[in-house]
Amino acid sequence: MNYQYILMPFIASLILTIILTVVFRFLGERGYLGNLYTNVRGGTPRALAIIPFALLSFYFPAGFNDLILIIGIFALFDDLIGRRKIGKLPIEWGQLSRGIGMLAVMIVGFPLLGYSSILIALIVQPINISDMQPGSTSMVVIIMSIFTILAMVMLDAGSILSIPGFYAVYAPLLLLVICIGYSPLDFAGKIMLGEVGNHSFAVALGICFYMLGGFWCTLILFIATTLLITLIRRNNLRIFFARKLNLRDPTFGDYFMDILTGGGLGDVFRRIFLGKKQYTVKNLLLISLGFRRLLYNPFAHRNNYTHNKYQAAHSLEKK
């Protein structure tokens, strides 16, 4: 393996993120960045992961990188446009853009990845929900990338999919070093990934799962990633459930279901299928599986529920 293709992306991710942070902060404090500069933690630049997005789109193995490029472009539009409603419809422009991007990944990726392209697009949801506090998404990406690399080495992943082992191991290693280069300021709470970041990391991670062992590895690691995010976010979600959903005795299934179906895009589907009805779940098995959270309809509780992903943690605003 030519290690310049690992070292150069790492250095570029580290240095360019620092430079762009300085530029964004300078412009944001003067009111020139709009939605790309938030008032969270006294002023925080958003969508700084446009650097990892660009590097992954350029350095990722050919064909696979197209999927990162697609989802990143639609996610960047989401970052730029902000939370703007589409007329009187119960959906925002950003949510529509995200949905179109996920659908495009499924369609464009199908000839290359088969049904795994659907899972790879859907992993955007839990990774997006993980982006609620400084460093949480970076932590997930780093942990799952390391696991994938170790699994590839032990299982000789190149022979599983009849693709050169160089490309198989290279992809998660590239994802790992780019994320590590970006992450110091993210862990410090000085910058935010934005949708362009968590969406790009999600699709790249899903592709790495596929390279490990096809559809079934993608499915198993999709579930494992969601479980990991659930464990990381569990304490914060307990407070969120109590204050915003009036759910004071949540089960692990409720936490898991929030990661899997929560957020603005999940609420759009609740509006479509549930209207303004709220169904009460009393079956103990369904409660343990998280159906109370799955069927919680925010449109039936407009005075109690607000979803703002970029709130400070102490006030339950999701980063």
UniProtKB/TrEMBL annotation:
Keywords: Membrane, Transmembrane, Transmembrane helix. The keyword Zinc does not apply. The chain crosses the membrane at residues 7-27, 47-77, 98-124, 136-155, 167-185, 201-232. The keyword Nucleus does not apply. This is Cell wall biosynthesis protein. It comes from Candidatus Methanobinarius endosymbioticus. The lineage of its organism: Archaea, Methanobacteriati, Methanobacteriota, Methanomada group, Methanobacteria.
